[in-house]
Specification:
With 208 residues, this protein is mostly beta strands. Helix content is 8%, strand content 41%. It is built from two helices and eleven strands, in the order E-E-E-H-E-E-H-E-E-E-E-E-E. Helix 1 links the parallel strand 3 and strand 4.
Length: 208
């Protein structure tokens, strides 16, 4: 783990061939401070998503640290401290008006909000969320997913040398299809065109 912020480099050596002159290379990188991903709810309510954010929960491999806040904890202060994203379930939107307003302000000022499906409960997201739920679809064999909105910056880290998004053979065994507003762009869709992941700009931030 790097202990100093800023630019750095690592020397790499690969041997086992007869030409030693090309065995060494240097990789440069920029080390940034860890940021939190704020989950509104308990860890068990988000399935494997917290593991994807940070396998060990400490941000060592990803630079992202999952933080979980209950409905009565208050989140306004957490949104001011290096928060990379807020994650809320469709049925778990904050009932406290102060928390709900704080999330909206966070997004409008440049933050990222991810609204994810829930196993149970009635959706209660506010009207300013740019998508609504349509139906839940399931398949034991998996439903093929198609990458859409290929020009969106969210895909930039997953582009190959040709500039295309290098995601292949994606399948969803259960998904929630969406009805998106005109300012939302579908990122992943079923083969019939129904979006299951979208992004919309809101102020200086984004809603997924």
């Amino acid at each position: 783990e790097m202990r100093k912020l800023g630019a750095g480099w690592i020397g790499v050596e690969i041997g086992r061939d007869a030409f030693r002159q090309d065995n060494q290379a240097f990789v440069t990188f920029v080390c940034q401070r860890k940021k939190k991903v704020l989950f509104f709810g308990a860890a068990k309510e988000f399935g494997n998503l917290p593991l994807a954010v940070s396998p060990a929960g400490d941000g060592l491999l990803t630079g992202l640290v999952p933080v979980f806040k209950g409905a009565d904890a208050g989140i306004a202060a957490d949104l001011q401290e290096d928060c990379a994203m807020v994650v809320v379930r469709w049925s778990g939107w904050p009932g406290d008006r102060g928390d709900a307003d704080a999330i909206r302000s966070y997004v409008e000022e440049g933050g990222n909000l991810l609204v994810v499906p829930a196993d149970s409960g009635t959706p209660r997201v506010p009207a300013w969320i740019p998508v609504s739920l349509r139906q839940t679809v399931t398949s034991a064999a998996g439903l093929p997913l198609v990458v859409t909105g290929r020009k969106e910056p969210v895909w930039d880290d997953l582009r190959g040398s040709s500039g295309d998004v290098v995601l292949r053979q994606l399948r969803a065994f259960q998904a929630q299809t969406l009805s998106a507003s005109t300012n939302a762009v579908a990122l992943l869709s079923l083969e019939n065109g129904s979006p299951v992941l979208s992004v919309a700009t809101m102020g200086a931030g984004r809603v997924f």
